[in-house]
Design brief:
Blueprint lengths: L1 H18 L4 H33 L3 H31 L5 H29 L14 E5 L5 H12 L4 E8 L2 H14 L5 E5 L6 H4 L1
Length: 209
């Protein structure tokens, strides 16, 4: 997710450089607008932050401190908001319109992502009075990259849990290494069956899932 975001930002920056022919005078308009949008939003956020805490705080000394901070952030919001409006009006035809279009779109995208996570969380949530049902059968797997002490210990722990069935699973990234490991598995007489999953693109997670 983070790498995709970095790629997206790099692509967007490249497009802007090409569109504006790498003109610093043109690109600085977008920078100034973006800076004051960030400043204004941060000041609004701090005002809401202090309002929320003032509703809960009862200590007079703390309330005075919070009110003082809220006044400072309110003044900051008015100042940065005024500059933002001036920049929007004076620089609209110099590229500010792109920010006006892009910011609502980004907001809608982020809201949709948030709603998706909220829906998933609601689906996964269990009521407090819901009874836990145990599975009738349990199939246990132990992921094996090579045969060493951690692998043998994991197999021992898996056996101790007494599952219905148990198998070792390995992903074949290098056929030669996989063949050698399978032979070593047989030579050691490990009673757990070893399942080998092919991975032509050298992926580990997807074949297992």
């Amino acid at each position: 997710a983070f790498s995709n975001g970095i790629i997206f930002l790099a692509g967007a920056a490249t497009v802007l450089v090409i569109v504006y022919d790498a003109s610093v005078s043109s690109l600085i308009q977008l920078y100034v607008l973006g800076v004051f949008v960030s400043f204004t939003l941060s000041q609004i956020g701090m005002v809401k932050h202090w309002n929320r805490h003032l509703r809960e705080e009862t200590n007079p000394k703390e309330r005075r401190r919070m009110k003082r901070s809220r006044v400072i952030n309110t003044v900051g919001f008015l100042m940065t908001g005024s500059v933002l409006i001036i920049v929007l009006v004076t620089k609209f035809t110099h590229g500010a319109y792109l920010v006006v279009i892009a910011m609502p779109l980004l907001y809608l995208v982020m809201r949709s992502v948030r709603k998706h996570y909220d829906r998933v969380a609601a689906e996964l949530e269990t009521p407090a009075d819901e009874k836990v049902t145990l599975p009738s059968r349990v199939h246990a797997i132990v992921l094996v990259s090579k045969i060493h002490k951690p692998t043998l210990r994991a197999l021992a722990y898996a056996r101790a849990s007494r599952p219905s069935t148990l198998e070792g699973v390995t992903v074949s990234v290098d056929p030669g290494d996989t063949k050698e490991m399978a032979a070593d598995w047989q030579r050691r007489g490990i009673s757990v069956p070893l399942k080998i999953l092919d991975s032509p693109y050298r992926e580990i997670t997807r074949p297992i899932v």
